[in-house]
């Protein structure tokens, strides 16, 4: 990520856009390497903004359509995928998604994907195009008046400061369906050196609605009958009163059989009749 920002400041993004171009059977290896490098550089938000400002989203779409139309035998699928990877990297930022929609990218990728469905070897192109279209498709409101469930379940613990309590304490006229989490993607100021470990920050997020006290999570084990009623079954179920700490449960040696005096007599079932 540090190298990508440094190279971007020195004009490598503009240089690579001079290398890649419309369909040509010459220097296809160079084209493939240039696209892979460009896709890696555009993962930097600074480089992605620079590409959007110079109108390179429209250039990438034009190049992709040109290769799609001329590569009838599908020999250059990797180059076509490389162009899509560059578009995918640019659309990671909100400005790139807007430029993609303004350049009619949704219709272009949809139509080209439809033409690729019949060829199994082009599945990577369809998959990447689908990811880009899903990411850039405008967000619509859920067709629901509220996200609150029609059924209320009695939860054992609902922290007062947790999101569940906050949701159910909202007034009835408050719209809780709209998600504005995507509106401020680019509002925050960023440092020039970007790290690739942004996803690790979410791992330290603490959810207040998750109970962490083990004692509260353990179910209470209560007997269905009192111990006095269960004593009649003691000879059948010695675990009711036996102290197993004195037993050698680890030893694998067979123990000698010692006849029990209690088992010499007849077995009496307590619940049977006198007969």
TrEMBL record:
<feature type="region of interest" description="Disordered">
    <location>
        <begin position="171"/>
        <end position="221"/>
    </location>
</feature>
<feature type="compositionally biased region" description="Acidic residues">
    <location>
        <begin position="173"/>
        <end position="200"/>
    </location>
</feature>
<keyword id="KW-0121">Carboxypeptidase</keyword>
<dbReference type="Pfam" id="PF25571">
    <property type="entry name" value="TPR_CCP1_N"/>
</dbReference>
<keyword id="KW-0645">Protease</keyword>
<protein>
    <submittedName>
        <fullName>CBPC1 carboxypeptidase</fullName>
    </submittedName>
</protein>
<feature type="compositionally biased region" description="Basic and acidic residues">
    <location>
        <begin position="201"/>
        <end position="221"/>
    </location>
</feature>
<keyword id="KW-0378">Hydrolase</keyword>
<feature type="region of interest" description="Disordered">
    <location>
        <begin position="255"/>
        <end position="275"/>
    </location>
</feature>
<dbReference type="GO" id="GO:0004180">
    <property type="term" value="F:carboxypeptidase activity"/>
</dbReference>
């Amino acid at each position: 990520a540090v190298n990508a920002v440094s190279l971007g400041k020195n004009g490598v993004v503009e240089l690579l856009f001079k290398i890649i171009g419309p369909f040509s059977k010459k220097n296809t290896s160079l084209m493939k390497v240039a696209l892979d490098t460009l896709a890696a550089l555009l993962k930097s938000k600074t480089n992605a903004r620079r590409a959007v400002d110079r109108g390179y989203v429209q250039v990438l779409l034009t190049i992709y359509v040109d290769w799609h139309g001329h590569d009838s035998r599908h020999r250059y699928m990797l180059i076509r995928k490389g162009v899509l990877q560059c578009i995918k990297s640019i659309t990671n930022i909100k400005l790139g998604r807007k430029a993609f929609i303004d350049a009619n990218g949704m219709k272009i990728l949809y139509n080209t994907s439809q033409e690729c469905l019949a060829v199994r070897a082009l599945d990577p192109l369809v998959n990447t195009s689908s990811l880009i279209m899903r990411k850039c498709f405008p967000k619509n409101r859920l067709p629901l008046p509220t996200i609150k469930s029609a059924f209320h379940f009695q939860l054992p613990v609902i922290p007062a400061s947790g999101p569940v309590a906050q949701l159910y304490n909202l007034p009835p006229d408050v719209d809780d369906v709209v998600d504005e989490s995507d509106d401020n993607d680019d509002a925050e100021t960023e440092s020039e050196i970007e790290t690739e470990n942004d996803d690790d920050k979410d791992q330290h997020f603490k959810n207040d609605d998750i109970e962490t006290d083990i004692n509260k999570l353990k179910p209470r084990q209560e007997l269905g009958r009192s111990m006095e009623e269960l004593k009649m079954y003691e000879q059948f179920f010695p675990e009711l009163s036996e102290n197993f700490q004195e037993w050698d449960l680890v030893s694998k040696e067979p123990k000698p059989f010692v006849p029990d005096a209690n088992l010499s007599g007849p077995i009496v079932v307590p619940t049977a009749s006198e007969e």
